[in-house]
Specification:
Strands 1, 2, 3, 4, 5, 6 and 7 form a seven-stranded parallel β-sheet that branches. The chain is α/β, with parallel strands linked by helices. It is globular. Helix content is 38%, strand content 14%. The protein has one domain: TIM Barrel (Alpha-Beta Barrel). Strand 6, helix 8 and strand 7 form a beta-alpha-beta unit. The structure holds zinc ion. Zinc ion binds next to loops.
Amino acid sequence: MMRDFTIKQYISLLDHLKQSGGAFQTVREYASNPAQNAILLRHDIDDRKDHALVFAKLQAEREIKGTFYFRIVPESFQTELIQEIESLGHEIGYHYEDMDFAKGNTQEAYRLFVEHLEKLRSIAKIDTICMHGSPRSEYDNKDVWKEFSYKQHGIIAEPYLDFNFDDLYYLTDTGRMWDGKKFSIRDEISTTKKWPQFHSTEDIILGLQRKNLPIPVMINFHPQRWTDDLILWLQELLFQTTKNQIKKWKKH
Ligand SMILES: [Zn+2]
């Protein structure tokens, strides 16, 4: 069996997406001028930031642009790396987790959000943000927006709050599979539609070939999970299996 979540599989997915004739839009572009055939490649850079650069380059080589959300923590944030990714034509956004930092204190979370946004804006153009959902956290990072507004800061979109998932099909590699939403307590979107399910990257590619992958689509990647290195790949598999158990347990 072919291993999934390898760079090889990723390249194959990119090439098939490109062949599908969809329009690659960044989150910023989709928020202001959505294309009917939009393909949004959204990357959450939780860890192993160097993998983000690999993804960014593979896309740029194919004239594909995507959106990369960076956390403010050292596992993710690095000035030169972020600037290099932006210079390849991609969008940079803030992967915020300020409710976690503030241990649920909304005022403090907002203060931190503004500070962190400013820091990111000093190195890249930031128009969109996207929450980080840690399965180990008891806080929902979106809760800061129950009291405060990001629009006030010129942020035009937070996909979880501004996109309509009855119109936009959503796929995520959360849980290290494409149909692992059952393991996720944070990455939940609301939709009334019965969307098709895909398990492996190969299934998505088959879906593209058979023209039954719904479009417009937002595909969410965690590049740290994708590697050709067998040791790293096995580590990630074991780690994710444990994490899925924790998530399942926390959900009940
Ligand atoms: Zn994240």
